[in-house]
Write a structure and sequence with these properties.
The structure is a homodimer of 315-residue chains. By secondary structure, chain A is an alpha/beta fold. Chain A has a single domain (5-308), classed as Aldolase class I (TIM Barrel, Alpha-Beta Barrel), CATH 3.20.20. Helix content of chain A is 44%, strand content 13%. Chain A is built from 13 helices and 8 strands. The first copy, chain A, has helices at residues 9-20, 37-40, 48-66, 77-81, 84-100, 115-125, 147-160, 176-179, 193-206, 226-235, 253-257, 273-276, 290-308, and strands spanning 24-28, 72-75, 104-111, 138-141, 163-169, 217-221, 241-243, 267-271. In chain A, 63% of the residues are buried. Chains A and B meet through helix 4, helix 5, helix 6, helix 7 and helix 8 of A and helix 4, helix 5, helix 6, helix 7 and helix 8 of B.
């Protein structure tokens, strides 16, 4: 156990969930062609630089709306990389701004590579500045290359009190291609790939448990696979889940319920489009601004999760 | 078949291999603490901005040395992301500079995500500017999330005449964790995961064969697994391989030989550290500059590959 829970990601995320009374996190997926019209119409949005500037404005205003409501935001790196290096300047600003507003930052970049390259990604993203370049609290990591490629991320996470979420069972329809294959030999005979990854993640997290009972090494498990979510919750008692797929991708509160423990802890539930582009949805068409639509959609998602899961215990 | 081979990645890469008479590609992995002393000692290298500037200088001078010798360079995104957004500015400059010097650019970023996020990564990196933000010829892609997550990359690659290399069997010692598991059910009973991915990649590449006989969808297969390399060469006749692990990681010319067809085509062989940091190796200690060490190491690697593989047919 760490002496100082403020230096342990599992503890920090758990404390933030308890403080905000919800496991909802907001995904920052700023697709440029979906930005509110009153942002884009006021100026020339044709250059990457200008698009990046609008993206920064949108994300900072989003952060202002949700900062008091949720424990963390999850920027999706792809939508910033899409805007070239201008987008990366903006991503850096947004990470800093979210942290300044008291939010944890889960960088959703799904990195993964071997040896010293994995080390470079880990040092780039994990932990406070200036040791880390980007200063994020957490990074999503892809396990396809093997257990040895997780090690540099685990080591840096534990050194810096940051975390990783390893892709275990993802929310997309085709996630079975590899993840659902069951294996025919060795110690894992009959087990599915996602379960082999899950067992490794639980082992890694059990090695770095904080005062919360959770470690720094989390797992991505999609809301769209509620059976696997419940199975893995039981198999991974010390592992925090990042649960995508709630809302726009079809996952309901009932679907995510199995991902939380009986105190409403052990998982964060991400919603991106359903919140940040709420202004496009008929039910929020009466909102006086896109900000008001986002705020109402956030409250609604928090309420849906509380009504349908053990997150009610946090209230 | 495309009408214009200059608009097809498989054809463009094959033509470049034939023109340069070698399948060697140079990996740009600019670890900041390994840059030549005469670069770093002349100035304060403590800030990210300054480190990025030195990285740009190093990579551009590397490109000058190898531009006439090899078909492509492979920047490793991690070492640029490590330098924050300053590193991304430099990465963008380096891509442009390599293309200006007539090299193909394989962006080694191992991206992978679902639906519109994968679409954003594909549009970010693949194809010529301005449709693509970064303007690369090719991107490495991670298949763990499933076949549906490959589709946006395949579509953009085929539309823009660019390519992807999908991770199949990677060069690291732990690559077996997932890739070497053999499965016990369905159409693939008894097959290993890497082979299931390989069969999908071959199918995708067979759907977009150019005049060269190769498609736009390639596979990463490590030099450190020569048996699998030879097995996959036979199973994937229309797929170009990106073969890492040659040189510093231990792969010899004999190890990579099975990755090329009988004309010396169908693969590119990457060397990073062994070439770009050649000045640190005892055998090049007599070189009059780090540039001269790089040039000699490139010639030596080309000769070793030609002597030990069918790439001799290209000479």
């Amino acid at each position: 156990m760490p002496d100082d829970p403020s230096k342990h990601f599992g503890d920090r995320l758990t404390a933030a969930i308890i403080a905000k009374k919800t496991p909802l996190v907001v995904g920052l997926d700023p697709r440029i062609n979906q930005l509110p019209v009153n942002l884009t119409s006021s100026s020339d949005a044709s250059s990457e630089e200008k698009q990046a500037e609008l993206t920064a404005q949108f994300c900072c205003e989003l952060i202002d709306v949700v900062a008091d409501l949720v424990p963390a935001v999850k920027p999706q790196a792809a939508f910033f990389e899409r805007l070239g290096w201008h987008g990366m300047v903006v991503l850096s600003r947004i990470v800093d701004y979210a942290k300044q507003r008291g939010l944890l930052v889960i960088m959703d970049a799904k990195r993964g590579d071997i040896g010293s390259t994995a080390q470079a990604y880990a040092s780039a993203y994990l932990g406070p500045k200036p040791q880390s370049t980007w200063g994020c609290d957490c990074l999503t990591v892809n396990p396809y290359m093997g257990n040895d490629t997780l090690e540099p991320f685990v080591q840096v996470a534990n050194q810096t009190g940051s975390g990783i979420f390893v892709l275990v069972k993802t929310s997309n329809p085709g996630s079975g291609t590899i993840q659902e294959q069951s294996v025919d030999g060795g110690a894992n005979v009959g087990q599915k790939i996602y379960r082999i990854v899950a067992d490794k993640v639980q082992e890694l997290s059990a090695d770095c448990i904080g005062q919360s009972g959770f470690g720094n090494i989390g797992a991505v498990v999609g809301a769209t696979y509620p059976e696997q979510l419940a199975e893995l919750r039981e198999a991974m008692p010390n592992t925090i889940f990042l649960i995508p797929g709630f809302g726009a991708q079809g996952g309901s509160a009932a679907d995510v319920a199995g991902g939380l423990d009986d105190k409403g802890l052990g998982g964060v539930i991400n919603s991106s489009r359903g919140i940040i582009f709420a202004y496009q949805k008929p039910e929020y068409s009466g909102a006086k601004s896109w900000h008001a639509a986002v705020e109402q959609a956030t409250h609604d998602a928090i309420a849906r999760i509380a009504d349908g899961t053990s997150a009610s215990k946090l209230r």
